[in-house]
Amino acid sequence: MYPLTEGTYLGDWLKWETDNLHSRDVIKVVSGSDLSTGTVLGKITATGDYGALDLDATDGSQHVAGILINAAHTESAGDALAVALVRDANICASALVWPVGATAEDKAAALTALEALGIVAREEA
Length: 125
Hints:
- It is a single chain.
- By secondary structure, the chain is of the alpha+beta class.
- It has one domain: Head decoration protein D (Virus Head Decoration Protein, Chain: A).
- It has helices spanning 10-13, 20-23, 104-116, and strands at 14-17, 24-29, 34-35, 40-43, 50-52, 64-68, 72-73, 80-85, 89-91, 119-121.
- The radius of gyration is 14 Å and the shape is globular.
């Protein structure tokens, strides 16, 4: 029998939100992205587009702006619309998709930024 590997599901990381019309926004994802649900997002200042949090960037995407609700796969030449959690929710931080190489300190700083948006990490049920 072959092993089955499953991806991340919304319920793995999102534990509670206010009415989803309040907690979520439709966003534009930068072209060339391949992001899964639970990806911590940054927002490019010049364009307003969202992408995966990039701790080494200087274009605004180094600042936490939300968490991706649905997977977003964009072609290299185009943008895509997606839905992001941007305010007032409880999440499980250990199930989020963090940037490669993110340290415990990086994650703690990002969680503090999320808390400023009203998105609170709770590891318990």
